[in-house]
Design goal:
The chain is built from 22 helices and 17 strands. The protein is of the alpha/beta class and 606 residues long. Strands 7-6-5-8-11-13-12-14-17 form a nine-stranded mixed sheet. Strands 1-2 form a two-stranded antiparallel ribbon. Strand 1 and strand 2 form a beta hairpin. The radius of gyration is 26 Å and the shape is globular.
Length: 606
C-alpha cells in the first residue's frame, strides 16, 4: 500500500529544491510540473494496458504483431507514441543535439525542453479533448533541471494506477504552489472513498452524467471504472459532462480522463460558474449528477441565480446586497433540477446543511415532500485531505420505487472508518462494501448482499460463522507473536533483522485476514442472512411523517439514535486526545459559521 503522504513530501521536496534554484515563479513552474506527473502516470497506465493487449497477441513470421492506437482505444486507454513515452524521455543523452531529433512539424530539436513539448503535442494528437490543454512551456527550463525533474517523477509508486493518485499528488502540489487557488471558496480534493461510495450507491451504467463542480475529475474516473468492471465500455454507454470554474482544475480533469481513456465535455472559466450558468443546457436531462461542491460559499448574486433558473423550490435567504449568504441550498436545488424523470444524484455537502433553518428549511421541506430524497449518510472528521470537518452524503432518486416514496434511509457512519494516520481517515474496500450492503437490503436487493457474504467466505476460505473465524485468527495472531519473539531471541545477531522481517510479512497477511473477518462479522451480526432491520446508532428507515415530527431535519443522528457503548480496549489517553482534536475542529467550524452569520446580519442592517 502506498504511503501517499511520504510520497507527496518526497516528490515536493525534490521538485521545490529545483524551483528555488531556477528563475521561474511558482505559477510558471506549477502546470509544467503537473504535466510531467501526468506523463509519468500516463506511461504507467500505457504499460499496464499494453501488457493486457499482448496477452494472446497473434504473430506473423514468428514476430508478435505490434500494438496500435486502436488497440488502446478499445481498452479505454490513451495510446502513447514512442517519442511521448516516459522511458524514452528519461533515457535521452545529455546533449540532445547529437540525436538529430525531428519534431512533429519537421524541425530539428536541440534541447530537452523542445523534446518534452513535442511529446505533449504528440499526445494531444491522440486525444481530441486534450487539444490545447497540456503544458508546452518546457523550453523555459534548463536541460539540467528538466532532466532532474524527469528523474524525480520516475517513482515506482506512480505505477499504482488504480484510483486517483494523480489528483492527490496534483492537489498537494497545487496547495504548495498556489494555496490561494486550491483553498479558494472551499475548493478541495474529494477523497477516493467518498467518491467510491457515491458511485457505488448511484450505480451509473448508461446515460448522461454531470458533475457541475468537477475539479480533477474523480467522479468521472470512478464512474468509468464502475461501468468497465461491469463488463461494459464507459465511453460507449456514458456521456460525461463537467463544469469547473478554476482553469487549472479543468485542465487536470481533462488530463486525468485522458489517462483513463475517458472522453467528456468539460467547460471551464467564468462561463462554467455553476451558480450562474448551465453550460451544457442539461437542466432536467441528466441520468446522474455527482459532485463535491465548495461548501458555505457566500456573496453569490441572487438576481443572476434567479435568471439562470434551476431553482424548483425557490431562492435561499438573500441579504440587503441581493446576495445569497450561504450557497449550500443553491447547489442542492441545482442537483435536483438537473435530473430527468428517473435520474439519481449523489453529492457531498456540509454537515450543517442537514438541519439549517430559515429558507433552507423551507426548501428542504419541499424537497422531502417530493419523495425523491433516498439516502442520507453522515461522515466523520478527517476524511478530507486538507480539512478536518465532517460532512454528509446526500442521495436523490427520482425513479425511486413507489413503495419507498415515503421512506428515507439514514446511515450514521461517523464512527465507522479506518485510520490512515493522525489526521486522515477513510473507508476501506470492505467498509465501503458493508455500507453499500445496507443500501442493497433497504432496496430489497438481497442477491447482492448474499454475493458479498459469499465473497467474504471465499476470501477467508472458510464456511464457519464469522465470529468463530475472528477468534481463530486472534489465537493465530497471539501464537505467531510468541513464535516470532522466540525465533528472534534465539537467532544469531546477524540473522535477527532478516527473521523479524519474515515474521512482519506473516503478521501483515494475518492482520489483513483478521480485518476482513471482523468486517464480515460486523455486517453479519446486524443483518444475518439478508434482512434489513434498523440498527441503533447505525441506520434507520424513517417515514416522511417521522421527519416532519423532527422539524424536517435530514441529520442521520436524529433518527438512528445512539448505539450501546462497548468496551473497545482503546487507550483512554489516546482517545481523549482524539476527542480533544475533534472538539477543536468542531469549534473552528462553529466559529466560521458564526462569522458568516454575523457578517450576514450586518449586511442586512441588523
Amino acid at each position: 500500500m502506498i504511503n501517499i503522504r511520504k510520497l507527496e513530501n518526497e516528490l515536493w521536496e525534490s521538485a521545490d529544491l529545483l524551483r528555488s534554484g531556477s528563475k521561474l515563479t511558482s505559477n510558471q513552474y506549477c502546470m509544467p510540473v503537473l504535466g510531467l506527473i501526468f506523463l509519468r502516470y500516463a506511461y504507467s497506465r500505457f504499460k499496464m494496458v499494453e501488457t493486457e493487449i499482448l496477452k494472446g497477441r497473434p504473430s506473423r513470421g514468428g514476430r508478435v504483431l505490434p500494438v496500435e492506437a486502436s488497440d488502446f482505444i478499445a481498452k479505454s486507454a490513451l495510446f502513447l507514441p514512442k517519442e511521448a513515452q516516459y522511458d524514452y524521455l528519461l533515457n535521452l543523452p545529455e546533449d540532445i543535439s547529437v540525436m538529430e531529433l525531428i519534431n512533429k512539424d519537421g524541425h530539428t530539436m536541440t534541447s530537452l525542453g523542445e523534446v518534452v513539448n513535442n511529446a505533449m503535442l504528440l499526445i494531444e494528437d491522440q486525444s481530441e479533448q486534450l487539444t490545447g490543454v497540456l503544458p508546452k512551456s518546457y523550453t523555459n527550463f534548463s536541460d539540467e533541471i528538466l532532466s532532474e525533474l524527469l528523474r524525480i517523477f520516475n517513482n515506482s509508486a506512480l505505477d499504482e494506477v488504480g484510483g486517483d493518485i494523480i489528483g492527490r499528488i496534483y492537489e498537494y502540489f497545487l496547495n504548495k504552489f498556489a494555496k490561494n487557488i486550491a483553498s479558494d471558496d472551499g475548493v478541495f480534493f474529494t477523497p477516493k472513498s467518498l467518491v467510491k461510495m457515491i458511485v457505488n450507491i448511484i450505480e451509473p451504467f448508461s446515460g448522461v452524467l454531470l458533475d457541475p463542480a468537477c475539479g480533477s475529475g474523480g467522479m468521472f474516473i470512478q464512474s468509468g471504472d464502475f461501468v468497465n468492471q461491469s463488463g461494459m465500455n464507459a465511453n460507449s454507454t456514458m456521456t460525461f459532462y463537467g463544469q469547473e470554474k478554476v482553469e487549472y482544475n479543468a485542465q487536470l480533469c481533462l488530463m486525468n480522463m485522458a489517462v483513463h481513456g475517458l472522453t467528456g465535455v468539460i467547460q471551464s472559466g467564468d462561463e462554467a460558474n455553476s451558480f450562474y450558468h448551465d453550460s451544457h443546457n442539461l437542466n432536467g436531462c441528466c441520468d446522474y449528477v455527482m459532485a463535491n461542491p465548495p461548501f458555505n460559499v457566500d456573496k453569490v448574486k441572487s438576481e443572476s441565480c434567479e435568471s439562470a433558473g434551476r431553482l424548483p423550490f425557490g431562492m435561499p435567504s438573500v441579504n440587503k446586497n441581493k446576495e445569497v449568504g450561504n450557497a449550500n441550498y443553491l447547489w442542492i436545488s441545482y442537483f435536483y433540477s438537473y435530473l430527468n424523470a428517473h435520474g439519481r444524484a449523489g453529492f457531498v455537502m456540509a454537515s450543517s446543511s442537514t438541519d439549517s433553518q430559515g429558507k433552507d428549511k423551507d426548501i428542504r421541506e419541499k424537497l422531502i415532500k417530493t419523495g425523491h430524497v433516498d439516502i442520507m449518510i453522515s461522515v466523520g472528521n478527517n476524511f478530507f485531505y486538507t480539512k478536518s470537518l465532517p460532512c454528509s452524503l446526500w442521495f436523490f432518486d427520482k425513479g425511486k420505487d413507489e413503495t419507498k416514496k415515503d421512506n428515507i434511509l439514514f446511515i450514521d457512519a461517523r464512527n465507522y472508518y479506518t485510520v490512515i494516520d493522525r489526521t486522515l481517515n477513510e473507508w476501506s474496500e470492505w467498509q465501503l462494501k458493508n455500507i453499500n450492503a445496507i443500501v442493497w437490503l433497504y432496496r430489497g436487493e438481497i442477491d447482492k448482499y448474499s454475493s458479498l457474504m459469499e465473497e467474504y467466505h471465499t476470501i477467508l476460505n472458510s464456511k464457519k460463522p464469522f465470529v468463530e473465524q475472528v477468534q481463530v485468527l486472534l489465537e493465530k495472531e497471539k501464537s505467531l507473536r510468541a513464535e516470532a519473539k522466540k525465533a528472534v531471541e534465539e537467532a544469531q545477531k546477524r540473522e535477527k533483522k532478516k527473521i523479524q522481517e519474515e515474521y512482519d510479512v506473516k503478521f501483515a497477511e494475518l492482520s489483513e485476514m483478521l480485518t476482513i473477518a471482523k468486517e464480515a462479522n460486523w455486517l453479519y451480526e446486524k443483518f444475518g442472512d439478508g434482512v434489513y432491520v434498523d440498527v441503533l446508532g447505525l441506520c434507520k428507515v424513517a417515514t416522511i411523517a417521522e421527519i416532519e415530527a423532527k422539524g424536517w431535519s435530514l441529520t442521520p443522528g436524529a433518527y438512528v439514535g445512539v448505539a450501546p457503548v462497548e468496551e473497545d480496549g482503546v487507550n483512554f489517553e489516546e482517545r481523549m486526545t482524539e476527542i480533544h482534536q475533534e472538539l477543536l475542529a468542531l469549534q473552528a467550524e462553529s466559529n466560521d459559521l458564526m462569522d458568516i452569520i454575523s457578517k450576514n446580519m450586518k449586511e442586512m442592517g441588523l
